[in-house]
Specification:
This protein is an all-beta fold. It is about 0% helix and about 60% strand. The strands form two sheets. The protein has a 24-stranded parallel beta sheet that branches. A two-stranded parallel ribbon has the order 21-24.
């Protein structure tokens, strides 16, 4: 790790231009808020290459991007939040821009709570590219994403989410050639509650606006609220919802307004 907080330096701001590259099995990190209550802020430029992370917020910590993070590499992640059910909420704030050529813009994992101010994320065409990836499938996992402006340039996914999530005021743009999916949601194997709120979604090519699979546990809920969804191609899909496959999934409820 290039810059990491500790008990003596609980808050670090960097104005540097940093490039970070790791190795298979040994990742590298540009900035890390290591402990609960710690903060790291990027006021420069971070270029994330192979097997690397730009900014990491440990459980209960905060990472803030005020400038630019570029992501272009195998297993590359721009900003990462680690959560723990025994710790306070982990926070990621993107007040700058994250440009994803290859990799993941923002990642959330663990069994605790996270709050993400998503900001501007641009996702280039690659089927494995993801703007925001939420991998919290425990009963106690709960992630809130607010205010994201995500542009898909081709293949790939704007937001890939699982479990208990709230997506507030998300703006998804699919470019002329975009064949990817704006939001993918999977309820998983635990009882889950999800709220998805977006503005208008204009799908010009054979892309998808929202694709959701309900949790396979009883009483799970999914509420989707969108603006106008326009599909201009015969292969385009506005919203697709699939029911869970568990034996008690029949009482799960999905609502679209």
């Amino acid at each position: 790790t290039f810059l990491k907080t500790d008990k003596d330096y609980t808050s670090i701001t960097s104005n540097l231009n940093v490039e970070v590259t790791g190795q298979d099995g040994k990742s590298a990190t540009a900035m890390e808020a290591a402990e609960e209550g710690h903060t790291v802020t990027n006021a420069g430029t971070i270029a994330v290459k192979d097997y690397a992370l730009g900014m990491v917020a440990g459980a209960g910590a905060t990472a803030v991007n005020d400038k630019t993070i570029t992501v272009n590499g195998t297993d590359a992640v721009g900003m990462s939040a680690e959560t723990d059910a025994t710790k306070s909420t982990t926070t990621l704030t993107n007040d700058g821009k994250i440009a994803v050529t290859k990799g993941i813009g923002i990642s959330v994992k663990g069994d605790g709570k996270a709050e993400v101010a998503a900001g501007e994320i641009e996702v280039e065409s690659d089927t494995s590219n993801i703007g925001i990836n939420i991998n919290g499938t425990a009963d106690t996992s709960n992630t809130t994403i607010t205010g994201g402006t995500i542009e898909l340039k081709g293949a790939g996914t704007g937001i890939n989410a699982g479990g208990n999530v709230t997506l507030k005021d998300i703006a998804i743009t699919l470019s002329e050639a975009a064949t990817g999916t704006g939001i993918v949601y999977a309820g998983g194997d635990t009882e889950a509650e999800a709220e998805i709120s977006t503005g208008n979604i204009d799908i010009k090519a054979a892309g998808k606006g929202i694709e959701a699979t309900m949790s396979n546990k009883a009483t799970s809920t999914l509420n989707i609220k969108t603006g106008i969804i326009s599909t201009e191609n015969a292969g385009a899909t506005g919203i697709k919802i699939t029911g869970g496959t568990g034996t008690d999934s029949g009482t799960s409820i999905a609502t679209v307004t």
